[in-house]
Amino acid sequence: MNDVTMSETMNIETHIDNNGIATITMNRAKKHNAFDEAFILELTEAFKSMNDDNSARLICLKANGKSFSAGADLNWMKKMASYSWEENYQDSLALASLMSTIANSEKPTLALVQGSAFGGGVGLIACCDFAIASDAASFCLSEVKLGLIPAVISPYIVQAIGPRQSTRYFISAEKFSATRAVEIGLISEVVKAAEFDTFIETFLNQVSGNAPVAIREAKKLVKFVLNGPINEEMIRETASKISDRRASMEGIEGVSAFLEKRDAKWPIETNNVKDLADGDGDV
Questions:
Q1: What are phi and psi of 5, to 5 degrees?
Q2: What domains lie within the chain, and their CATH numbers?
Q3: Residue 240 and which of 6, 61, 82, 257 are 20 to 30 A apart at CA?
Q4: Are 131 and 110 in contact (CB under 8 A)?
Q5: How far is residue 10 from each of residues 21, 29, 38, 53, 271, measured CA to CA in Å?
Q6: Phi, psi of 176 (to 5 degrees)
Q7: What is the tens place of the pLDDT at every residue in 184-241?
Q8: 128 Cβ contact list (under 8 Å, min separation 6)
Q9: pTM over 0.85
Q10: Cα separation of 72 and 52, whole Å?
Q11: What is the four-CA torsion angle of 61, 67, 71, 77, rounded to 10 degrees?
């Protein structure tokens, strides 16, 4: 297992295990993993680094301490109170960059939510492809209590839970449970707190046994299908995509392993289909 690497300020821990599971851990437990300028930049760089690391297959976002993330740090909010419009705008763009970096990761992203998430913390969860929460977790989009709105995180929240639920929780600022979060689509699954770590370990073992390139392509497939009508172009393109995978080294190995009733040994793939057909490429 690779060594854990930490940022100099100890706000973020990053780790990639031998199965390609990358973990980014928010490590401001005493501050409830709340955001400030430095934390936002560090978290952005951590996601960029894990996305660029060829050994990472899946990126998990988790947190140390009681809370997943309390949103904006109080001291940061005090500073913002004296900012000019332009300073506030530039500050908001940094947070928008973090959210966009997570949402547009080439690799699948998973939020592991062990505790409460408020404001921007809910945004982090919505930016991930999916999320698993402990039944001890709770959620709140509390911005209107402060005379603010959840503007920067709103594209991801609305995409995750839809316009009607977004409107409700944006204007009510009410706290809701992990069970409710599953019902509205923010969370994929809720697990008892006592069973959370065991469930996550089992789930990640399941993912790590799957084909690395196919995992990335499956994520891209969802976005492709979501953004277009089911027409002749969609039909032909999806047929092309499965043909590419069947002809790939991963596809050949995966089907062979299934038929031979053995574990697959995933090769290192090339993106050149001709190379695959000719049998070239590293194994």
A1: -115, 140
A2: 5-208 (3.90.226.10), 212-278 (1.10.12)
A3: 257
A4: yes
A5: 21, 11, 11, 21, 38
A6: -135, 160
A7: 999 999 999 999 999 999 999 999 999 999 999 999 999 899 888 899 999 999 999 9
A8: 61, 102, 109, 110, 111
A9: yes
A10: 28
A11: -130
